[in-house]
From TrEMBL:
This is O-fucosyltransferase family protein. Signal peptide: none annotated. The gene is OFUT6. It comes from Salvia divinorum (Maria pastora). GO terms for molecular function: glycosyltransferase activity. PANTHER family: O-FUCOSYLTRANSFERASE 16.
Length: 374
């Protein structure tokens, strides 16, 4: 996020730049994913926005770059950022998205919701392709569920499974000692609920929760670690298995090679689904969870990873009836019910409680969800 000081004290926001140096190496800019004109016009009463940083003395202006502390609130920004902005005139904030405090004044929380759920609108090209994918899923089944399956190599690395090995200067794949340490790390991380469920575990979770083999499931994912071998158990449990590649094939050419644009298509299909399921707790899952709450509490199933670890680890020592009963008990409070998380608790992206009370559609839909057998 880039702020430019104009006049005496009013700051101007420069259209955000996207991270192009992450694992995904996507060169897409903001305007190739979101409708910039809509973004600027929708927020014009809140803040002045410009598309680019203007030149300074006929030269490219290099803004001062800084990173604010985690969970920084409005008072933190006034005390830490404002003095630097006044001095440097242009400041670029890095890693801003997850460093903003969950607890802000009510007006700022409402502004947050206006940005998250209204000002950020995908480009026409993405919206049209996303709507077509949803239409094709509805043709397969009027009711479908989506699974955000994050099981890529980078996901596993971020779970400290391989990072710890790197710190020790060992390569676990090539040493018996390293292999033992790797297994130990996996079990430690899984016990603490930090590892994503495997595709097979997600399939078992859904079957235990009562989803039949005939259920139509759309899987949103990037490259799955282990490929088809890893996906095979999930496909065996749910043969009506679809993805954007299966539904669209050659029509995805304008989006392929750009992970953010492909993720945007997945986002649309997941948002429109009857039930959204995630095997992880990364940003896309959190934002979708919050959006589905904000627009009416559509069910979102999040795995209670800490408790599920023990059940998956010992599932061969119990009957299916026992296993499924324990799964259902373990998942209480993780099924996307309207009052599942108390107001003010949890991450804001997952639980925008201060905004939900202002949304009449959400209040209406809460009643219908409470009456639903789901």
């Amino acid at each position: 996020m880039l702020l430019l000081l104009r006049g005496s004290s009013n700051a101007t926001l420069v259209v955000p730049k996207l991270d192009q140096k992450s694992f995904w190496k996507d060169v897409s800019n903001f305007s190739e994913i979101f409708d910039v004109d809509w973004f600027i016009s929708y927020l014009e009463k809140d803040i002045k926005i410009v598309e680019e940083l203007p030149q300074r003395r006929d030269q490219t202006w290099n803004p001062y770059t800084m990173r604010v502390p985690r969970k920084c609130n409005e008072h933190c920004y006034i005390s830490r950022l404002l003095p630097i902005l006044l001095k440097k005139r242009a400041v670029q904030l890095t890693k801003f998205d997850y460093r903003l405090s969950n607890k802000l004044e009510l007006d700022l929380q409402k502004l947050r919701c206006r940005v998250n759920y209204h000002a950020l609108k995908f480009t026409k090209q993405i919206l049209e392709m996303g709507a077509e994918l949803v239409r094709r899923m509805r043709m397969k089944s009027e009711h479908y569920i989506t699974l955000h399956l994050r099981f890529e190599p980078d996901m596993l690395a971020f779970d400290v499974i391989m990072v710890e090995e790197t710190k020790r200067g060992r390569t676990w794949q090539n040493s018996g000692e390293g292999g033992k340490l790797y297994i130990t790390l996996i079990h430690r991380e899984r016990r603490q609920g930090r590892c994503p469920l495997t595709p097979e575990e997600v399939g078992l979770l859904l079957r235990a929760l009562g989803y039949y083999r005939e259920t139509h499931i759309f899987v949103a994912s990037g490259e799955v670690y282990g490929g088809e071998t890893t996906l095979a158990p999930l496909k065996a449990l749910f043969p009506n298995f679809y993805s954007k590649d299966i539904l669209a094939k050659g029509e995805l050419e304008p989006f392929s090679g750009f992970s953010s644009r492909m993720a945007a298509l997945d986002f649309i299909v997941c948002d429109e689904s009857n039930v959204f399921v995630t095997n992880n707790n990364v940003n896309m899952a959190k934002i979708l969870t919050g959006r589905r709450r904000y627009f009416g509490h559509k069910p979102t199933i999040r795995p209670n990873s800490k408790n599920l670890y023990r059940l998956f680890d010992g599932r061969n020592n119990m009957t299916w009836v026992e296993f499924s009963s324990l799964i259902r008990t373990s998942q209480r409070g993780f099924m996307g019910a309207p009052k599942e998380i108390r107001p003010g608790m949890g991450v804001f992206h997952e639980n925008p409680s201060s905004c939900i009370c202002e949304n009449p559609d959400a209040r209406t839909n809460v009643v219908s969800v409470q009456k639903s057998p789901d």
